[in-house]
Write a structure and sequence with these properties.
The chain is globular, with a radius of gyration of 19 Å. A hairpin with a 4-residue loop joins strand 9 and strand 10. The chain starts with a helix and ends with a helix. It has one domain: LarA, N-terminal domain (Rossmann fold). By secondary structure, it is α/β, with parallel strands linked by helices. It has 15 helices and 14 strands.
Length: 378
Amino acid sequence: MKRREFCRRLAIAGGTVALAPLINACRPVAPLTRANTVPSTKASSDHIKDKSTVTPGAEPVSTLASDAEYRAIIKDNSLVTKIALVKTRDRSEGVREAVRLLGFGGIRGDRVLLKPNLNSADESPGSTHVDTLSTLIGELHELGVGSITVGDRSGMGHTRAVMQQKGLDQLASDLGFELVAFDELEDEEWTVIRSNDLHWKDGFAVPRMLLDADSVVQTCNLKTHQYGGHFTMALKNSVGLVAKKVGNQGNDYMSELHGSPYQRLMIAEINSAYKPDLIVMDGIEAFVTGGPASGRKVSSEVILAGIDPVAIDAIGVAILRIFGTTPEVSKGSVFDQEQIARAVELGLGVASPDQIQLVTAGEGSEAFATQIVSMLLS
């Protein structure tokens, strides 16, 4: 019997036994630690032909996040990333438990940028649930973070109006964080990321505060995307970091993205601008068709947490398949999905399912993890 088939059968047969030891026993791995595998957000990348970036009115900086060491670790399959999975109906409880399971102490410095999903003001999973956001902010305060900025750019509405409709002005006052609508930023507060290795014609603009933050946290939802993305989770949540336009400059970044046959590749490429320090996916409910604002909703009852957007999205795609989803999301292996495949090419995360360590607590979570592993390896 081949090793891969052995691993697959073993994982499925494991039942309520912890999934990670079963999978990881099939291949020697080293823990994913920020110190030796994940570069700084300011690190250069030798696979990028042209590493220049341009900030209007500011000195250019290099911001692409992958590096040769990180890609080499992925290439030789010695990398494992830990993803916490909590099966629950309670968002607040799920977020707290997932962060605890992750054993997370990787938030660096005192300035944290938190990117939610505020594409619209629609109810979750159309946008970030207030309970998820408030609990995550509470957890960051518990980790000792002093300054938190919650920032986003809406794609289906005016960002400031969306924030107000979601009640975030009051939440910011209550919990003590700064609320920033990216489309209100001045020209000099944007940085344009350019590279010959990207499918963007003239790069894409991200907020300078993304690059200046000590740590970046994002919380995404679990859903399909009917306008070309196929699914929208951790990787696609980063689209809200990109400007529509910067001042009077000619580039309309969102028109380019949504009109391009390379849309899913370009989505992945946005994530080369930074490395997340924490990702929390709210999958209490999911859209298995439609999306991003509305669709066929299921009660998937799961919270995920990790630092690897590729692993988070791969698990998310597997969950959508478990509940029955669109032909586009169901096609091929999970890691053949274009967003995921391009992110792997860029060295933005793990390269295969057996590099993912699912960490759970409780029989319900373990049983669901078994289903996910089976789907990932199918």
